[in-house]
Each structure stands twice: as C-alpha cells, then as structure tokens.
Amino acid sequence: MQYTNPKTTGTTNFYMSQITFEGQSILHKPNENLLKCLIRANSKPPYSCRAGLCHSCLLQSISGSIPANAQTGLTESQRKQRLLLACQCQPDGDMEIRRPLKEHSKTDAVICSLKALNPDIMELQLSPQTPVRYHAGQHIGGWRGSDIQRRYSLASVPGIDSELHLHIQLLKGGQFSEWAHHSARVGDIIKISAPQGDCFYHPSFGRRPLLLIGSRSGLGPLYGILRDALGQQHKAPIVLFHRGNTDQELYLQQELKQLASRHNNFSYRPIIGDDNNLQEAINSTLTKPDSLRMQAFICGSPSLVQNVNQLLLENSVPETKILADSFSPFIR
Ligand code: FES
After folding, report:
1. Residue range 215-226: average pLDDT?
2. Domain spanning 203-326 has what CATH number?
3. Which of 157, 179, 297, 318 is the most exposed place for a label (fewest CB within 10 A)?
C-alpha cells in the first residue's frame, strides 16, 4: 500500500496521522503503534521490552492528543508533563513528540532581555533552543560554563509570556547571580535543564481560596502562579503576601496593584519587616472555614518555608494543600 500526501486517499479514505519527532515528519500507518512508526522511519527511539513494562520508550508529547493507554502506569507528575510510552501509544491524530529532557540533561537558551526589577533582582528572559513545556512556578537548572549552576523558578506563564522569565537575586559570592547582574549580555547563551517540581497552579484548585506567600525573590514563582490562576479564570479569593526588608525589596508593586484593581478576587498584601511580621500578618487573616478549603503556596528561604508551613498546619490548612518551593543555594 502506498502512503502519500494528502493524508486521505481516494480509494481507502482513512486518515493518516502525521508524527513529528524532533523535526522529522513521518506518516503514521494504521494499526501501527508509535514506537513501530518511529523504528520504521529509522528515528532510533529508545526502547526495550515493547510491552509497557520497562518505560525505556518514554517520550514527551509537545502537541496533539495522547491516547489514555499510552500513559497507563505513569505517575501523575509524568502525565502532567505529557510523557507517554511509545510502545503503548496508538496515535489517533497528529502528534509532535520528542525525547524528554531529563533533570540533568540540558538545552541551550539565549538571553533575550535583562531588566533590573530592583537593585537586587534581575529578570532574565530566555528563549530556549528546544521547546520547553512547563508550568509557572516550576524550577529549572541554569548553567554557565560546565560547573557554575543554580536552580531558578519560572515567573513566566505559558500562553501569556513568549519567553522563560527568571528573577535572579544578587547573592554575595554567588557566581551565577553576580554574573547575571554584572556581566551577562543580551545574546549570551546559557544551558538550562528541564522544568521540575509540583509547585504550580492546577485547574482543579478552581474553587479553593489561594494563599500565596513569599519573601524577596520568592515573588518570582508566585507572580507566575498568580497570573496563571487569573488567566485560567480562578474565581475564589486569592491573597498574595510578599515580604521585603525595605519598600525597595517589594518589587513589581505597580503590576500587582494593577492586577488587584482589575480582579476583585485578588488582594495584594505587601509586608515590610521580617519573617515574624509576615507570620503575624498571615495569622491575623486566617479563619478556620477558609483554612480547611485553602490551597497554599510558599516560596522563599528554607526557614521561611518551614515556619510558614508550621503556621498553616496549626491553622488547619491540610498538609496536602500546601505546596512549597524552598530556595536552596546550589544544585549538582
Ligand atoms: S519499550 Fe518497554 S515500556 Fe515501551
């Protein structure tokens, strides 16, 4: 049988899906699973058992619907990342797929913009060479050279921002942050790893009050999560607490006030002071009925995350409804 474009033939009139695998276009034959299709096209996909057991044929869908069978046995996190088993996937439409970026595999990303949000926070906007699927609030590794690396959370929102946005706080002696603040230029290329982490907004949170809490550059992921929730028409109340030692540390105030004026369900609570002041402010607003239904996000230093997490638990916020991004200094 001849397989040619157009995708439907005059004699058989069946639909042939087009598979795009890392830039290569392949017409999918009926009754052929995705793995066989890629092997036939000499795309050299990874595989072993061909029976859905070993998971070595794990690929990531960039676009197109994923048949349910193709995700049987995967974790919720893997399903959310649109991972699938090629040997169990019977395509029912066009699909664009690729090998998944593993946590420590890297891709190049070009710096498109550098903008000081305050004297201590630089916003880097990055355009990755390989498309990156992510949720606002997840983190990526950033490498400069072979061994200078840091983990940063994503302040950008897919579908709203065209580039990846990172808020980089200047750390004394921090090689990556000092480079980003003092030496980086538009056009420079760094390496980044695949997005990781579960600290992001999910549409199932739609009826829960959202409590977003962060200090200093912890605002980065929260700003992404907030705009993601508003963009997905979150209707329940959203409160954002952002703490800084000074007014200057409370960056993006104008943008947050504008969002609060446009969305009746969003309140912005800037706090000048230390973590104790922040906890007092949170404590004074929590009520038990709301706490029981709440979805909370905490982003900042390990001590902030630990203390606020404890405070929320004491105020009846369920442990399973607290997501946190604790900023640790280095990854290896
Ligand atoms: S090849 Fe083993 S699960 Fe697909």
Report:
1. 96
2. 3.40.50.80
3. 318
Q: What is the pTM of this model?
A: 0.70
Tell me what percent of the residues of the chain surpass a pLDDT of 90: 62
Residue type at position 157: V
Model pLDDT for residues 19-31, shown as the tens digit of each residue: 999 889 999 998 8
224 burial class (0-12, 13-18, 19+ CB within 10 angstroms)? buried
Residue 253 and residue 308: Cα distance in Å, rounded? 22
- CATH number of the domain located at residue range(s) 18-98 in this protein: 3.10.20.30
Residue 50 Cβ < 6 Å to ligand 1: yes
Would the CATH topology of 106-193 be identical to that of 203-326? Answer: no
CB of 59 shorter than 6 A to ligand 1: no
Residue 295 Cα, ligand 1 centroid: separation in angstroms?
Answer: 37
Q: Whose CA is nearest to atom 3 of ligand 1?
A: 52
Domain locations in the chain?
18-98, 106-193, 203-326
The encoded tokens of residue 224 equal: 């992404």
Burial class (CB in 10 A: 0-12, 13-18, 19+), 172: exposed
pLDDT digit string (tens) for 138-164? 989 888 876 667 889 999 999 899 999
| CATH assignment, 106-193 | 2.40.30.10
Helix (H, G, I), strand (E, B) or coil at 253: helix
Nearest to 195 by CA among 64, 126, 101: 101
